[in-house]
From TrEMBL:
UniProt-recorded name of the protein: OLC1v1022799C1
Highest classification ranks of the organism: Eukaryota, Viridiplantae, Streptophyta, Embryophyta, Tracheophyta
Gene3D superfamilies assigned: 1.20.1280.50
A Pfam entry, by short name: LRR_At1g61320_AtMIF1
SUPFAM superfamilies associated with the record: F-box domain (SSF81383), RNI-like (SSF52047)
Positions of the F-box domain: 65-101
PROSITE patterns: FBOX
């Protein structure tokens, strides 16, 4: 069988076509094993297989005996897991010993972006067919071992029925980590088995359509959930999803559409990390009230928010919060008082954290309000807040303008326990070493309440 346009290296049947025909793959077991031994292997990860064998004796091949092929299957499959699935399957032609090893590799990664031509960024129907057949054959010939991680990215090769079958096959193999990136043209619902998978610990879903959820959801072992680009359908089903993950530790909601929601409560006792990245409000009037997001997570350690405060966040209990990061661009440029009020409430809710990160866009957005309320932005008023406990300050993208210098002056005068200020200069403003030296001398001359504080420029 001959496929035009493809630099065919080797294949024994249709099954090897996509796995090998577009891959200039020269597998060197000895070199690869040595690299992994030095850089990636941890001895404790393979102690059940090696049983205190000396690694150096394993990687030495004397020309007659192939000691690599004599390694236990679990070790070789662990090695193959560092390859792409395409490359791992291609090793099946090395020898009879390697023929079926790939069928037990714990990590499967299928990405149709490999179909794109590196020069023309085009894809061809024949390649799409080969990719789909390849995925199905890999899953069909797989042994009974469980799948640790299953990643499927379909931006071109999307067939609802076949994608359903692939995902269901992964669930039957008791998949632990499921990473799906699906670009769909028509409404698409996920297999219900995903949201009732007891073995699942990590779920990452990126899908540009409405998230249709089943009536019954049970994810007893899920610890990490990332949702990207999805459109939430309604309050009831979304709340059901968040309430059926009793062990959830990390929740990321990235560029999702909240427009169908009115009020959602994120009340998860086990939650430790919450990341919300919102899309801008495309409402022409800019008066959209958005969704009310109530956060009640007493064990939360990290809160990262990036967006335009389209939705209103009510933080009820985050008493354990250690680090917060806020990025609200164009805060005051829009003149939206609702947005500014939501920002103040958000900052007030996280004022007790040890580390608070505000992006330069957020600070620049605050600048007009600071000038309007100049009598309130004084050392006397600032000392009553969290500045009295501040120890380390990082200033990114420093321009050296009056507002920034004034802010540093207040920090020096109010932060009793301040130990260090790290200033990362903007090259466009303070790129010259003389400018940095002059600014350093000026800041060093400012009065400070902490004698041990040092100012470092980078």
């Amino acid at each position: 069988m001959v496929f035009p346009r493809f630099p065919i290296c080797f294949f024994l049947s249709d099954f090897w076509a996509w796995g090998a025909c577009r891959l200039d793959f020269k597998f060197q077991p000895l070199k690869f094993l040595r690299m992994l031994m030095m850089k990636k292997f941890r001895k404790d990860q393979m102690k059940n297989c090696f049983e205190q064998q000396d690694f150096s004796s394993v990687v030495q091949v004397d020309g007659k005996n192939d000691r690599i092929s004599n390694l236990p299957d679990c070790v070789l499959q662990y090695i193959l897991s560092f390859l792409t699935t395409k490359e791992a399957v291609a090793t099946g032609v090395l020898s009879r010993r390697w023929k079926h090893l790939w069928t037990g590799v714990p990590i499967l990664d299928f990405d149709d972006s490999l179909l794109y031509s590196s020069q023309l960024n085009l894809w061809y129907p024949l390649e799409v067919s080969l990719f789909m057949n390849f995925v199905e054959r890999v899953l069909l010939l797989r042994d009974a071992s469980r799948i640790e991680r299953f990643r499927l990215s379909c931006r071109v090769c999307f067939s609802p029925s076949r994608v359903h079958a692939w995902i269901s096959a992964a669930v039957r193999h008791k998949v632990e980590e499921l990473d799906l990136c699906l670009f769909v043209d028509d409404p698409f619902s996920l297999p219900h088995c995903i949201l009732n998978c007891g073995s699942l610990t990590v779920l990452k879903l990126e899908m540009n359509c409405v998230l249709q959820l089943p009536c019954s959801i049970s994810l007893p072992g899920l610890k990490i959930m990332h949702l990207g680009l999805v459109t939430f359908s309604d309050d009831k089903s979304t709340q059901r999803l968040l309430s059926c993950c009793p062990l959830l530790e990390e929740l990321a909601v990235l560029d999702c559409e909240w427009m169908n929601l009115r009020c959602i409560s994120i009340s998860i006792t086990s939650l430790k990390r919450l990341i919300i990245d919102e899309l801008p409000d495309f409402d022409s009037n800019g008066n959209s009230q958005g969704c009310q997001i109530k956060i009640d997570a007493r064990n939360l350690l990290l809160l990262k928010y990036s967006g335009y405060l389209t939705n209103e966040m009510h933080i009820c209990d985050v008493s354990s919060l250690v680090k917060a990061s806020l990025n609200i661009p164009m805060l005051c440029q829009t003149g939206n008082q609702i947005q500014f009020s939501r920002f103040l409430n958000l900052v007030h809710s996280v004022k007790h954290v040890r580390s608070l990160s505000l992006t330069n866009l957020t600070l620049e957005g605050l600048d007009p309000s600071i000038r309007l309320a100049k009598e309130e932005w004084t050392p006397k008023s600032a000392s009553r807040g969290f500045l009295s406990r501040l120890k380390i300050v990082d200033v990114q993208n420093f321009h050296g303008n009056d507002a920034e210098v004034h802010l540093l002056q207040i920090l020096l005068e109010c932060a009793t326990f301040l130990e260090r200020i790290n200033i990362f200069c903007c090259k466009d403003s303070l790129g010259c070493s003389n400018n940095q030296e002059n600014m350093r001398n000026h800041l060093q001359s400012l009065p400070r309440v902490s004698d041990s504080c040092v100012i470092v420029f980078s």
